[in-house]
Amino acid sequence: MNITQPVQDIINRQINMEFNSAYSYLAMAAYFESRALQGFAKWMRLQSEEENVHAMKFFDYLHDRGGQVTLLEMPKPRIDFSSPLEVFQVSLDQEEKVTASIYDIYELAHNERDYATVSFLKWFNDEQVEEERSAADMVQRLELAGDNPEALLLLDQMAGQRSAAE
Ligand code: FEO
């Protein structure tokens, strides 16, 4: 069964959202780079790369189903933040929006009786649990660190240990 127009449209929207996330994480990486917090910068850069991978998974899936990829416009990402804590709060908020968007695709795919898409989305569903968890953990740790520069530098070091596979 070929993909229906509504499912195709919502997947194109999701491709845009994932590339947007990648762009936004890159802006966060730049924020940290300019403040000599290279560990957080690395974390954000890897996250940006992951979002590109997510976008390309949807891109490839749409082609696998005989659909048409349409790349949409991207807004300028936010580049300024009041603190490292705010960066991760924005990141968590962004991930929650992505999760909600994945649920919207699920709902539509069910309504369209598109069970191939339902099955494809399982990976993203599991991935979002991880994505929200790692952003939420960092928010909690930064809240604990408060205004303590030593704790912040320790967290920066910890964030820098992130590997590409996470
Ligand atoms: Fe692709 Fe972080 O959601």
Describe the structure.
The protein is elongated. It is built from 5 helices and no strands. The chain has one domain (5-159): Ferritin (Up-down Bundle). It is an all-alpha fold. It has helices at 5-33, 38-64, 84-111, 115-145, 149-159. The structure holds MU-OXO-diiron.
Helix content: over 70%
Structural class: mainly alpha
The CATH architecture term is Up-down Bundle
Subunit arrangement of the protein = single chain
Content of β-strand: under 5%
Number of helices: 5
- Give the rounded overall mean pLDDT: 96
Give the uncertain stretches in residue-range form: none
Shape: elongated
Q: What series of H and E elements makes up the topology? A: HHHHH
Compact summary:
The protein is 76% helix and 0% strand.
Task: Please tag this protein with its features.
single chain, mainly alpha, 5 helices, elongated, binds MU-OXO-diiron
Write the layout of secondary structure elements.
Blueprint: H1 5-33, H2 38-64, H3 84-111, H4 115-145, H5 149-159
Helix pairs in contact: 1-2, 1-3, 2-5, 3-4, 4-5
